[in-house]
Amino acid sequence: MPQVDSRDAGVLAPGTPAPDFTLNATPDQTLSLHELRGAPVVLVFYPADWSPVCGDELAVFNQALPMLKQRHATVLGISVDSVWSHQAFAEARNLHFNLLADFEPKGGVAAAYGAYDVAHGFCRRALFVIDRDGNIAWSYLSPTAVNPGVDGVLDALEALPA
């Protein structure tokens, strides 16, 4: 799989404090990154609900949830789609982690992480592992058409101090 060096692509690099955010997880509930301090967080930025590669990527994370939970990690999917789209998509794909709506301002959180594609108006396919102190421990930018899988995330989580 072709790898894009996150430093060359403008996504936030390891060692950078993860920008805090509050996004809708459901139409009436928000989730803030700072609420998850004390345990690792995996951010999965993806272009769009209902696209084939995104569906496959999120299915891989869904299948890997037991391994991710063994490492005490919380997985959050983030795209610019609405909470309603996320709700229907998560239900249709039987996903068991939160999909957050970076809907308004469109792509604001993705932009803070260097993961917003202004030309196309969607999130770039980017992965971040945030350590328990709120710092980016690992980041990866994948080409839009390529499912990056979960191996890099699992390796990054394994490398975190206990």
Given helix and strand content, the structural type is alpha/beta
CATH top level assignment: Alpha Beta
List the secondary-structure elements in sequence, H or E: HEEEHHEHEHEEEEH
**Domain tally:** 1
* Average predicted confidence as pLDDT: 94
Structural overview:
This protein has 6 helices and 9 strands; from the N terminus they run αβββααβαβαββββα. It is globular, with a radius of gyration of 14 Å. The strands form 3 sheets. Strands 5-4-3-8-9 form a 5-stranded mixed β-sheet. The chain has a single domain, classed as Glutaredoxin, CATH 3.40.30. α4 (83-93) links the parallel β4 (74-79) and β5. It has helices at 6-9, 52-63, 65-70, 83-93, 108-112, 151-159; strands at 22-26, 29-32, 41-45, 74-79, 98-101, 116-117, 122-123, 126-130, 136-141. With 162 residues, it is α/β, with parallel strands linked by helices.
Summarize the structure.
The chain is α/β, with parallel strands linked by helices.
Topology record:
Layout lengths: L5 H4 L12 E5 L2 E4 L8 E5 L6 H12 L1 H6 L3 E6 L3 H11 L4 E4 L6 H5 L3 E2 L4 E2 L2 E5 L5 E6 L9 H9 L3
Parallel strand pairs: 3-4, 4-5
Antiparallel strand pairs: 1-2, 3-8, 6-7, 8-9
Features:
two-stranded antiparallel ribbon; alpha/beta; globular; 24% strand; five-stranded mixed beta sheet; Glutaredoxin; 162 residues; 6 helices
